Amino acid sequence: MLPNKNLKNEKTKEYEFGANLRFFNSRLGIDVAYYNKNTYNQILDLPVSPEIGANRALFNVGQIRNQGVEILLNAVPVRTNNFSWNFNVNFTKNHNTVVSLADGVSTYDLLDAFGNDVRALASPGKEYGAVYSKFSFAYYQARDADGKPIASPSNGKKVLGNAPNGSDGYTFLRSGDYAPGLVQDKYLGSIMEDFLAGTYQTFRYKDFSLNVQIDAKVGGLMASGTHQYGSSNGAFAFTLPGRDKAHGGIEYTDANGVKHDDGIIPDGVFADGITSANGTQLGGMSYKDAYDKGLIDPKPAWQYYEDLTQWSSGIREFSVFDNSWVALREVSLGYTLPKSLSSKLKLNNLRVTFIGRNLAYIWKNAKGGINPEGLSSNGPAAFAEYGGIPYVRNMGFSVNADF
């Protein structure tokens, strides 16, 4: 790393305004805040020419803007001599935008996944952590004899062809391997969540108390190595369809005269230039139409799933997905012994509490049962998972005594 004597201090300009309102003798409260924070002269390391004696150097680069809203609602709906119910609900929505980078810098890699097949970038005009990949699904575009795009009912459908490496037969092509001039480095979305929310509920009845905490994250992409490689090895339930006749597999006879019942019809159209065994042009034709016309056999299920997700020919986009969840974060049940009992033990107070943390996901949409919080790092741009630890429940108890 080359030191840079011309670095400037990082500067932040921020304004915030809000309101804190209380009603019904403070049994209902609303706290609302809006903020706008601009950070200038952010310091990042960028590649430089090795002729100067280093590969990277520190520079001041551009501007990042954070703006959002935070809402906190607290209330006491019920309060009697023997019973009370208190709750807090919070909501946070933040929009993080890369306003500009240094002159001559169009993008900055924040974090990569699958090597550098999927990248989370800082890109001017985009939200922080915009995710791009050339290893996404390619989509068909018909062309005329001069190579110019033309209208076709097959346009926009996933493309099947011969992958450059490692595939058995026709498989889905990567965007970076198809149709120069079309979108190859595909924008998949952002690693940033749409919003965060949570609630903390407290119930008290005489000497008992029950506390329940629920957290939620909605939006934001995850790139999962577990899903990618587990899919190619057939470790997930979604790879069952097509494995045999009982799971919807299509019967066919291979070139050696052996009968099988594990055929799958990929949902896509053939790239231009592909022909069947009898010389029929298949470009723009769907795999199903080619099969119905007897021009091609189904694809064996093991080949289909392996080619879809293996390292050499796999579609990384297939294992980049929305990562939203609602978690039962904590439940605790406590009991305070009556004074008449604690005094016999020479104590002023004795309280026993049973606590459970990370008990379950009430709802999640991460594929394959993957732990949505099992990311490989806890950095601000973390979005990749590689064999992350499973969701671990913690159970315990505490005893609090006053002498």
Explain the overall architecture:
With 403 residues, this protein is mostly beta strands. The strands form 5 sheets. The protein has a 9-stranded antiparallel sheet, with no helix packed on it. It has a 4-stranded antiparallel sheet with strand order 5-6-7-10, with no helix packed on it. Strands 9-8-16 form a 3-stranded mixed sheet. 7% of the residues lie in helices and 45% in strands. β6 and β7 form a beta hairpin.
How would you describe this structure in keywords?
403 residues, mainly beta, 9-stranded antiparallel sheet, 4-stranded antiparallel sheet, 22 strands, globular
Query: Are there runs of 5+ residues with pLDDT below 50, and where?
Result: none
The H-and-E topology, N to C, reads as EEEEEEEEEEEEEHEEEHEHEEHEEE
The number of distinct helices, counting runs of at least 4 residues, comes to: 4
Largest sheet geometry: 9 strands, antiparallel
Summing up helix and strand content along with how strands pair, one would put the structural category as mainly beta
Order of strands, widest sheet: 1-2-3-4-11-12-19-20-22
Query: What is the count of β-strands?
Result: 22
Overall pLDDT: 89
Oligomer: single chain
